[in-house]
Specification:
Blueprint: H1 3-18, H2 26-36, H3 47-60, H4 65-82, H5 86-115, H6 118-143
């Protein structure tokens, strides 16, 4: 990606994350998931199958969860080699931590499915709410790249 396209690409992504069109996307979607995950044992007929599957998808598939955060972390790391920006470094640092926390949330959801322990879903919900705040802060920093 040419250097002149990096800032507009990052700020557009940040804007979409910070101002999602519906409550299931961006930081609002993560926060909503943090509240709803606590009920997942009651929402499935086969938690031993469904919760580990949901966790796998959260960690290794789709555009959400750890997979996206790992990709975005690596993209931001490459960008820091091209641009000198404290906002960019902040975003990279926070996404490095977020990628790890998404994997932790997925592991807790898997444990809940395997054990039937609702406490793991409560912990996963707490992690997801922390992630919502963390990623919001990261995207707020990244949205200021053009400032």
């Amino acid at each position: 990606m040419p250097q002149g396209q990096i800032i507009p690409a990052i700020t557009a992504c940040a804007d979409a994350f910070l101002n999602p069109p519906i409550a299931n996307l961006g930081h609002r979607g993560i926060e909503k998931a943090g509240k709803l995950v606590r009920t997942w044992l009651q929402r499935t007929d086969d938690p031993q199958r469904d919760l580990p599957q949901a966790a796998l998808l959260m960690e290794e598939a789709g555009t959400g969860g750890a997979l996206f955060r790992n990709l975005y972390r690596d993209f931001l790391a490459e960008c820091t080699e091209l641009l000198d920006s404290s906002h960019l470094r902040t975003g990279h640092t926070l996404y490095t931590e977020a990628a790890t926390l998404w994997a932790e949330a997925a592991a807790l959801i898997t444990k809940a499915g395997e054990s039937g322990g609702a406490q793991y879903l409560v912990q996963a919900g707490t992690v997801l709410c922390d992630l919502s705040r963390m990623e919001r802060a990261a995207m707020q920093a990244l949205s200021r790249l053009d400032a």
